[in-house]
Write a structure and sequence with these properties.
By secondary structure, the chain is mostly helical. The chain has six helices and no strands.
Length: about 140
């Protein structure tokens, strides 16, 4: 029925749309590909390799995590201050969020300032919520 409605919306008569939809539905693979293409606007052939997606996700996560961890690797030892690596980690995180948001805005065409501000807002919001949950759990457990 969905394919028939899609083809009716494209200008085919009820009979033509019904015939086309019935023909497509005889092969489940073609039916799924057609529904994905027509209803969702996805091309099943362009979805990408899941291994490549997993590797790029891992690398992105590792780079993002290293931004926060690196200050603690360089400022360690018995005489090291705990506030310097914390301030560096927070500063680098904020700068990274702005850079990532700007790049996403540039690539998506939405505007660099808007995307950077949105990325910063979500990142800071997530940090505040995480800190709050940690404080609540720490108070209740510790």
């Amino acid at each position: 029925k969905e394919l028939e409605l899609i083809y009716r919306a494209k200008g085919l008569s009820r009979e033509q749309a019904g015939m086309v939809a019935a023909q497509i539905m005889t092969d489940p693979k073609i039916a799924l590909e057609t529904l994905a293409r027509e209803e969702l606007g996805l091309d099943p052939n362009e979805l990408g390799n899941p291994i490549k997606v997993a590797i790029s996700s891992f690398i992105s996560f590792a780079i993002g995590a290293s931004v926060v961890v690196l200050p603690y690797l360089f400022f360690t030892g018995p005489t090291a201050s705990t506030s310097i690596p914390l301030l560096l980690a927070v500063s680098l995180s904020l700068i990274s969020m702005i850079i990532v948001g700007s790049v996403v805005g540039r690539l998506s065409g939405r505007g660099m300032i808007f995307s950077a501000a949105r990325q910063l807002a979500w990142g800071v919001g997530a940090a505040v919520v995480t800190y709050g949950v940690g404080r609540i759990i720490g108070v209740n457990i510790g």
